[in-house]
Design a protein that fits this description.
Number of domains: 3
CATH class of the largest domain: Alpha Beta
Radius of gyration: 25 Å
Number of helices: 18
Structural class: alpha/beta
Distance between the termini: 10 Å
Number of strands: 25
Strand order of the largest sheet: 3-2-4-1-10-9-11-15
Largest sheet: 8 strands, antiparallel
Bound molecules: 6-O-phosphono-alpha-D-glucopyranose
């Protein structure tokens, strides 16, 4: 994980680096640091969040017009000042920031130790510093040294390097970790993500794997590992910096929850039209001819994106009658999966940078499998490497816990499943029109749930002292309950388990006691009565019950302590609606418990390491 930023120009670098780091803090926040050149390299770093670094910088200000900064999510070595970045060589003539994991760091470290290098931290990053230094000592050419060093590195890296022999220069390199280069007027930037530099420029280069860039205030030159110059198109960022700010909300998470009606509207615009009887997915080939090549479909993702994939699996199977295997990417990649050119794979990722999802994509492509990426971050690695991309158009999601991106991913599943079902003639035009109509009504139905958020706040305050929470449902309700349980774990730190309603009596019911809260999902009408029976079983054992049900299904009030109603809708549209109250419930519980909602402990937004 980790966020890196770098500046070379005419202005003071430190405020620009700090500003960039603030918008990258979602990538990790256990320590942070900056190194700035001013007649020598000045380093300030500290354990803790960026505010700690800010305090340290007030005590020890650093000036200079070239610099690099880093906010860390620890992988090798505990969060501490010594392990925080930037790291320097023995003479303090070079500083390096790194995001990723250098897998062969132990071998390289042993080799460098034998050559007399002195290591001070437990990090894998420090080997990159000494390895570059090792090559630099041979011919005093920093670009050569960086290229020679990264050729030896196995694993993933985004690197920023400054050296006092090159006081007007910043070097950047990447492999399997994101890095963008920002083009300014008389200044240039590097960053792990676009929002970090959006205040200064909308023109960026998206660095590709095994490319190295040399930035001065007036130029950016990109090289491959043979030191040949690579030419690249400028990527113009079209979204606004305000989209990456809080807009008056207390937390990004709430802002992002409230944006969902618009996100879904954007998702549907240009894909379904009220006078066209088909789903249009530009750049994604799901024609009858193309689909006839596939004998099975895999959906692969991590975390929340995986749970949206479970909704997708159920929809494709039920609507199109094609078998779908859904797998978490970290398992898929080591499962020796049975895939070939007759397999279609859909990978889902908000960031487009998740290491396991990216590895799964590459594994599939190597087997000849066609990969569709359902991705939020435009220009991200997964978006670039997938054969086809369906963008989820949710805009930047800053809160670590995913909300609007999940809704957009589920919406993408609606579109894909409907498209496949139509290609196979499994649904009629009339059925399509019913689905289309329901999709068009989604934004206003989401809004009607958001308008009742105070009701969920009161429920959250009532149940905030629960010690254990079970989320139960059947079919699509079960898929949704998994996302509900994840959300409350992530941001409220409550122990929560999703369970298939019918499976509860095969063990977990033994855990039910008076302090247990059960959230029962009843948005699938066909399973309503069955899930009611399961709710009764836990109610009889003393648990408190909060039900999420469709309007008009009032008999649940007889068994539940509280009921939150969602608007009536088609069964396939219900998952998206049923999840909105779960998001708000988790959010308000986290607030009631005083949790750090946007930056929950131990988590990072973008998991770019295995
Ligand atoms: C992390 C985030 C989750 C996210 C998952 C997958 O765990 O905290 O919110 O669902 O990564 O991320 P992706 O960017 O691939 O959707």
């Amino acid at each position: 994980m980790c966020g890196i930023v770098g500046y070379v120009g005419e202005k003071q670098a430190t405020p620009i680096l700090m500003d960039g780091l603030k918008s990258l803090e979602y990538r990790g926040y256990d320590s942070a640091g900056v190194a700035v050149y001013d007649n020598g390299l000045n380093l300030v770093k500290t354990k803790g969040r960026l505010v700690e670094l800010e305090k340290r910088l007030e005590e020890f200000p650093v000036t200079g017009i070239v610099g690099i900064g880093h906010t860390r999510w620890a992988t090798h070595g505990e969060p501490s000042e010594i392990n925080s970045h930037p790291h320097m060589n023995e003479e303090s003539s070079m500083a390096v920031v790194h995001n990723g994991i250098i897998e062969n760091y132990m071998e390289i470290r042993d080799d460098l130790l034998a050559k007399g290098h002195v290591f001070v931290s437990e990090t894998d990053t420090e080997v990159a510093v000494h390895l570059i230094e090792h090559y630099y000592n041979q011919n005093q050419d920093l670009l050569d040294a960086v290229i020679l060093a990264i050729k030896e590195l196995k694993g993933s890296y985004a690197l920023g390097v400054i050296h006092e022999d090159y006081p007007n220069q910043l070097i950047a390199a990447r492999k399997d970790s994101p890095l963008v280069l920002g083009l300014g007027e008389g200044e240039n930037f590097i960053a792990s993500d676009i929002p970090a530099i959006l205040k200064y420029t909308r023109n960026v280069y998206l660095l590709d794997d095994e490319e190295v860039a040399v930035l001065t205030k007036d130029s950016i030159t990109i090289y491959d590992l043979y030191r040949d110059v690579v030419t690249k198109d400028i990527f113009k960022v079209t979204w606004d910096v305000a989209a990456a700010e809080k807009d008056g909300y207390e937390h990004f998470m709430m802002k992002e929850i409230m944006e969902q009606p618009k996100v879904i509207k954007d998702m549907l615009a240009s894909r379904i039209y009220d006078d066209v009887d088909e789903v249009r997915l530009d750049n994604v080939d799901l024609s009858k001819e193309k689909l006839s090549q596939y004998s099975k479909i895999y959906i692969v993702a991590c975390g929340t994106a995986y749970y949206s994939g479970l909704v997708g699996k159920s929809l494709i199977e039920r609507l199109a009658r094609i078998p779908v295997i859904t797998e978490v990417a970290s398992e898929f990649r080591y499962s020796d999966p049975i895939i070939d050119k007759n397999t279609l794979m859909i990978v889902i990722s908000q960031s487009g940078e998740t290491a396991d999802t990216l590895a799964a994509l590459r594994l599939a492509q190597a087997a000849g499998t066609h990969v569709i990426g359902v991705v939020n971050a435009v220009g991200s690695t997964i978006a670039r490497e997938a054969d086809d991309v369906l963008y989820t158009l949710a805009g930047p999601e800053i809160a670590v816990a995913s909300t609007k991106a999940y809704s957009a991913q589920v919406c993408a599943m609606y579109l894909i499943a409907t498209k496949i079902a139509m290609a196979y003639d499994k649904i009629s035009i009339e059925e399509f029109r019913i689905i289309r109509n329901e999709l068009f009504m989604l934004p206003s139905k989401i809004k009607s749930i958001l308008d009742k958020k105070d009701q969920l706040k009161a429920l959250a305050e009532k149940y905030a002292d629960s010690k254990n929470v079970f989320y139960i449902g059947r079919g699509l309700d079960f898929a949704v309950s998994m996302e509900g349980a994840l959300k409350i774990k992530e941001i409220a730190y409550l122990h929560a388990e999703p369970y298939a309603a019918g499976e509860l009596k095969h063990g977990p019911i033994a855990l039910i006691e008076k302090s247990t809260l059960l959230v029962g999902l009843l948005a699938q009408e066909e399973f309503y009565d069955k899930t009611i029976s399961n709710i009764k079983e836990v109610k009889a054992r003393g648990a408190k019950v909060l039900a999420i049900a469709m309007e008009g299904k009032n008999s649940v009030e007889k068994v539940a302590d509280d009921v939150f109603y969602i608007p009536r809708t088609h069964w396939m549209i219900a998952p998206l609606l049923a999840n909105i109250p779960q998001q708000l419930f988790a959010y308000y519980i986290a607030c009631a418990l005083g949790r750090d909602v946007d930056k929950p402990r131990n988590l990072a937004k973008s998991v770019t390491v295995e």
